[in-house]
From TrEMBL:
Domain of life: Bacteria
High-level lineage: Bacteria, Bacillati, Actinomycetota, Actinomycetes, Micromonosporales
Record Pfam families: Peptidase_M48 (PF01435)
InterPro entries, per the entry: HtpX_protease (IPR050083), Peptidase_M48 (IPR001915)
Gene Ontology BP term (one): proteolysis
Biological source species: Micromonospora purpureochromogenes
Cofactor requirements of the protein: Zn(2+)
UniProt keyword terms in alphabetical order: Cell membrane, Hydrolase, Membrane, Metal-binding, Metalloprotease, Protease, Transmembrane, Transmembrane helix, Zinc
Subcellular location: Cell membrane
Membrane topology of the entry: Multi-pass membrane protein
Transmembrane segments: 66-90, 123-144, 156-177, 303-320, 421-446
Region (Disordered): 1-35, 391-411, 681-703
Protein name stated in the entry: Zn-dependent protease with chaperone function
Amino acid sequence: MTDPDVDPQVRPAVEPRPTEPRPAGPGGLDRRLADRPPGYPNALVWLRAGILRDWRGVLGSFLATWFYVPLALLAAVWGGLALGVLGLVAGGTQSGDALPSVVRDAPLVGPLLDAFLNRSGGVVGGFVGFAVGSLAGFLVVLVLPWRDAFDEPANLFTGLVGMVVAAALVGLVYTLGRVLLEPWLLSVSGARQLSRREAERLRPILSGCAARLGLPSVPRLLIEDDPVLTNARAYARHIVVTTSLLDEPDEDVAALLSHELVHWRTGDEVTSAFVRGVGLPLVLVHAVPTWLMRRFPHPATDLLVFLVFWPVLLTMRFVVLPCHRRDVRAAEYRADAGAVLAGHAAGMRSMLERRRSFETGRSGWDEAVCATHPPSELRLDRLERLTPATADEATAADGSPARVGTEELFGRPGPVGSRRAWLLVGALALIGCLGGGALTTAQWLLFRPQAAVDAYFSALDDGDGRAALAALTPDARAAAGDGEQLARIVGGKGYQPPTDVDVTSVERDGDEAVAKVAYTLAGQKLSAELPLRRDESATLGLFHRWQVAAPPARLSLPGAAGLTVNGQPAPAAGENVELALLPGAYTVGGQRNALSETPSQVVYVLPGQESAASPDLTPTLAPAAQATAEESVKAYLDACAAQTVAAPQGCPFRYYTGETVKKIAWKITRYPTVELSLTGPTSAQVSTPFEGRGSARATGTTTGFFGTTPFTEDEEIQVAGVLSVVDGKLTFRPGGE
């Protein structure tokens, strides 16, 4: 059976004919990447092949980094500890009360359960609390960034797409940076050019291995000064070895260089760089503890670093590396197979038997990845299966051929993309452009801040108060109070909306904005600033409407009956009444009756205004009220004069003498002047000025000691009373009663 970690299927191959390797050719991007491997039509195909190969590693790095797995682990542990302690205490003190009385009183069963809970309730509660707390803490960190998606499902899709694009962009930029700056980075890390003697020793072996592998060019070979540790590592454009390799036999050196040439040819470093780039924030944080442990190797240091950075270390070890391990192991088996193809199986076997690994990293990530290499015994076992038993033929244990060729080893990268792939990409790009353009157009036309202002004033221009209220934020609508009354007032006669509205500018700050508006009201050109707010809920799960955040203005009116605003009756409860009004001009009218009338006034409410100026609703006498009052007073006095008594009851005149009045008659000789003073819309005080007093003449006879005596007497008249409206008619009540 074939191992799942092996990348190519083993097949027989013809021994490659050695050719002299040559340097890579210059030109364009290829010139900047002159040391890239051969066999790729261009640098884009090479980068694409490396980037898209290990999707498992990319997925693991993406999930661990962009879903905040270290923070989720930290929250899980602390949440588990908190609820675990709570469960331990509650379970140990209150577990016995959890049993129903029926079960507790049951023979044998009740005491058994009660004893079990009393002795183990705390432990059970602690375990349950820790499990619940850990799960809750872990899920809170994962779900909290997506809280907006619960109200807007489209946010989940757009958020994921944006996250994937951001991760891919970071990974791509990091990979390109590593590849382009690789010579400088290696020189900074300590790699140098080979000396003449070093070159005479290593370059012929490197060229021979490349020729046997069918590689027409070789990477740049650098060396590090390390006489103790035999180490080699293939990068995207370089192979770096240590000086201790010079002490190894040529066969071992050739095996090691053949191994690294396969890594270089298949772009394994590009794959690893992209995985690192996708998880770059996590990789950078992970570099801190690994550097500390490598710089200060001591158990106490390791313990302290682990206590501080354990979420990052565990995430890297149990999430990222397991996902990346499959490709790393397959790459190692493939590189070992390349050494066999180059004819250096014995040297590879010697290196694996004498050393645990000849590839060690210089960074924390490199060391972690190298730890995922297959065990040396498994690699030796694979070498046995790949090495021919005789010079002519050999088969593996399962009967399949045991030699690989360059085509099976390196594969065929092909063009940048097939015609079908390009058509699919083009179709998706076209759909994305059209869809994005349509959404952008809809957003610009219907859901930008200016659209909210236009909708608001358009509704006012149409006299549609309900639509105007719908353009306000919820708190502004709540401040309007009775929305139906406001809608009737806006739709009533006498309302004048702002016209010639023009949004001159919009200043936006996040989800809030201020629109500067020019408009015309009552023939005057004015300007105002309207606050706007972006709605939290989305229309169709995609678009956020803007709403006007200015509440309606408050208009204070006296709480008198009969007041109207645009023909709609205003509330009459209390001394003062406040009405909420939208921008525009309103006609406020008062009572009209037989006694008084209140002239209509126009009230102007400006956009963004908090309160409107209260109108002067002072009633004035009706034109016919004075004449009616005079007639009422005359009728009253005439009724008094018709009485043939010395003191007419309820009348403003009387005749007084010490003798008995035998006969008397009254006659109004001059009616008094009547003055009216309004005390309200339906009542007025009736009075007579001093100079406007009237007179009444009394004639008759009196009976006394000397007999019957005739008399004639004039009395001054002053009238006082109240003139009020009763059942729509003026009624005079003398004396202010």
